[in-house]
Design brief:
The protein is mostly beta strands. It has one helix and 25 strands. It has three domains: about 70 residues; about 90 residues, Immunoglobulin-like (Sandwich); about 80 residues.
Length: about 300
């Protein structure tokens, strides 16, 4: 900006001022002051705030350190055009200020994220069954976790199949981050931070069926004739009243799958599901019929 005139002796003259001319020629030199311009910062999709800077033209200016953040990305530098993928100024760079206001745009680069896999110590089914991580063996050898995969944020990877031995009574259900279950051999979008995906084990549903209910009088009527459960789950069996059969037998318990094991009747009959379906059949014991009442001819002696 023009600020006035100055002669060879250093005397300054403002524009429009009146000066008495001396006996010799005078050379006046124009005087200029540098304009002050503003440097603004744009987060380019990031979050946070940064105060603008002011600097005079041709002065040396050091940029404020970046204060913006962006999930899944790291700051690379500043560009002079929006949407640029390469930067003109590094973080906290020093440069000479030009003529005019300047807007600098943050340039972001995607982080490299680690996606790892494991077999959790507790089966992901909420039933209390436990299989120690990384200790299930196959052919005598410990089964390792799938290899860690590294990829940039927002890209996709293909999830591996399970290498683990399938626990009895379960099927492999995929991989979970604790919120969502993802199937093997499908695409997985890499999140903004390192993540471990855990093997999901889904319990197989097995049935327990009550059998022989109509063999007694009155008929045995449990709440349900078929009960569903999973391996390791314990239930209390139905405890019927003591019905009798027509041939003087009383039910004494439930026989498992027609074998020798009998669960006797009681108020707290416990049954734990295994990895097969189960049939419980009624079993009974005989009792002596009541004696016939004497008739009148027998009672009266003559």
């Amino acid at each position: 900006t023009f600020t006035g005139w100055k002669d060879s002796s250093g005397t300054a003259y403002t524009v429009g001022s009146t000066q008495t001319m001396g006996p010799s020629s005078v050379t006046l030199t124009a005087q200029w002051s540098a304009n002050t311009y503003t440097i603004s910062f744009d987060p380019s999709g990031g979050s946070g705030s940064m105060a603008a800077q002011s600097a005079a033209m041709d002065s040396s200016v050091t940029l404020s350190a970046n204060a913006f953040t962006k999930a899944g990305y790291y700051f690379s530098g500043w560009a002079t055009t929006p949407g640029a993928t390469t930067y003109s100024y590094a973080n906290a760079a020093t440069f000479t200020m030009g003529a005019g206001n300047l807007t600098l745009y943050a340039v972001w680069s995607a982080n490299t994220i680690n996606v790892s896999f494991d077999n959790p110590a507790s089966v992901y089914a909420g039933n209390g069954s436990v299989y120690a991580a990384n200790t299930l063996t196959q052919n005598g050898n410990t089964v390792p976790d799938p290899s860690l995969q590294s990829a940039v944020y927002g890209s996709t990877i293909t999830l591996p199949a399970s290498p683990y031995v399938v626990p009895a009574g379960y099927t492999f259900g995929g991989w979970t981050d604790g919120t969502t279950v993802y199937q093997p051999s499908t695409s997985y979008t890499v999140p903004s931070g390192n993540v471990t995906l855990h093997a999901v084990w889904i319990p197989i549903a097995y049935t327990l069926t009550y059998n022989g209910l109509t063999n007694f009088t009155p008929t045995i009527v449990p709440p349900s004739t078929v009960v569903t459960g999973h391996i390791g789950q314990t239930i209390t069996l139905y405890n019927p009243p003591s019905p009798e059969t027509a041939n003087y037998e009383t039910m004494v318990g439930w026989q498992i799958n027609g074998g020798g094991q009998i669960i006797g009747l009681g108020s707290n009959m416990q049954f734990t599901f295994g990895s097969t379906t189960t049939t419980l059949s009624t079993t009974a014991t005989a009792f002596a019929p009541p004696s016939s009442p004497p008739n009148s001819s027998t009672q009266l002696a003559r």
